[in-house]
From TrEMBL:
Organism domain of life: Bacteria
InterPro entries according to UniProt: 6-hairpin_glycosidase_sf, 6hp_glycosidase-like_sf, Glyco_hydro_88, PolySaccharide_Degr_Enz
The protein, known as: Glycoside hydrolase family 88 protein
Keywords associated with the record: Hydrolase
PANTHER family (alphabetical): UNSATURATED RHAMNOGALACTURONAN HYDROLASE (EUROFUNG)
Keyword Hydrolase: yes
One GO molecular-function entry: hydrolase activity
Length: 367
């Protein structure tokens, strides 16, 4: 298995919001931003724009990016229908009042309704729209919490639809209940992909990040009197605490989180740090324990995962129950069969999200 030795590279010292935009610029320069990880990058860019004092130009840029969906995009084969209209960032921009055009309102409402009526597994989780045969109907994977929960949450808040908000929370809780390892508080990625009723052996870094970002949006945006708030906060605190002991000496979390010989992975680290930043701002996480971990993580990303030209390192390639035969879903398959490379596209959004929380925490500290 691979281990990484400390890098001699100097850390990137650019201010966090400038660096966040630079990461997006670089990503956009090498690929069309449209896949689910691209939509999350647009969402992260919108969050960065809100923190910039003179943000009109950047918010306009976000609007123009999203107005290309769905008619000006050559769409790939999506797993979830809401990707077609810009997914999470389209719903967020509408919720925040940054996109109030009638087309956006129609699109978000229509696709939230479609998502509410999409097929479910026997346990109630939303199904991948391309995998609805009898075997696939029982497949559960934590990645699904990311596209479903925030989209329904923002749409429900915008249109005053409590059933959409209820379903947003329900989908995340269902995934945690199916995939949580009670022995260590970490998530497995998949269930029913290998043997019926079995979870994969992993505690994959980005998979834990996918679950945590869904909880992070719930604790940020659920109304104070929501019947789901107490459960969302408890799940969030429990998961963030379970992750804390596994931060590496360089400040990152690993591809297989509890395995000290696994390689350090940046996209999962970025998502975890985003959750930590939000938890610190909301007072859900004690600063004496979590602020040092957050600061070490940001420093680690700046030194080992982010380059001065906006390129990124150490992000895991697309990964869903890797391996073949008896190897499928094993820790070895997650660690050995998946290797990072420069500018792996899943990594941009998590790093931008982490940087937006660096900026927010810096602003609150300096206020």
């Amino acid at each position: 298995m691979n281990t990484f030795t400390p890098s001699s590279t100097n850390p990137v010292t650019m201010p966090p919001l400038d660096l966040a935009v630079a990461l997006y610029d670089h990503y956009e320069s090498i690929d069309e931003v449209k896949h689910y990880y691209g939509l999350l990058a647009i969402y992260a860019l919108a969050r960065a724009a809100e923190l910039i004092h003179d943000n009109t130009a950047l918010l306009n840029r976000c609007r123009n990016i999203l107005k290309r969906f769905p008619l000006e995009i050559k769409h790939p084969n999506y797993n979830f229908i809401n990707y077609r209209i810009g997914g999470i960032p389209r719903a967020y921009m509408l919720y925040r009042g940054h996109m109030t055009d009638e087309a956006t309102r129609i699109y978000v409402h229509e696709y939230a309704e479609q998502l509410m009526h999409s097929p479910r597994s026997d346990s109630g989780v939303v199904l991948n729209m391309r995998r609805q045969n009898e075997i696939a109907r029982q497949m559960v994977w934590i990645d699904v919490a990311m596209p479903v929960t925030p989209f329904l949450l923002f749409a429900g808040l915008t249109f005053g639809q409590p059933d959409w908000i209820d379903e947003a929370a329900r989908q995340t809780f269902l995934h945690y209940d199916e995939l949580l390892n009670p022995d260590n508080g970490l998530l497995h990625q998949c269930k029913n992909f290998t043997v019926p009723g079995a979870v994969t052996d992993d505690h994959w870094g980005r998979g834990n990040g996918w679950g945590l970002i869904a909880l992070t949006e719930l604790v940020q945006y659920l109304p104070a009197d929501s019947p789901h708030r107490r459960q969302a906060e408890q799940y969030f605190v429990d998961h963030t605490r379970a992750l804390l002991p596994h931060q590496s000496p360089r400040g990152l979390w690993r591809q297989e989180i509890p395995l000290p010989t696994a390689w350090e992975e940046s996209s999962g680290t970025g998502l975890i740090l985003y959750g930590y930043g939000v938890g610190l701002r909301l007072g859900l996480l004690p600063a004496d324990q979590f602020r040092p971990a957050f600061d070490r993580g940001i420093a680690g990303l700046r030194q080992h995962a982010i380059k001065a030209d906006g390129s990124i390192e150490l992000s895991c390639p697309g990964c869903r129950c890797p391996g073949e035969g008896e190897r499928r879903g094993t820790v070895a398959a997650y660690v050995e069969d998946k290797q990072p490379y420069r500018d792996e596209p899943h990594g941009a959004a998590p790093l931008i999200l982490a940087l937006t929380e660096e900026a927010r925490l810096n602003q609150s500290t300096n206020a």
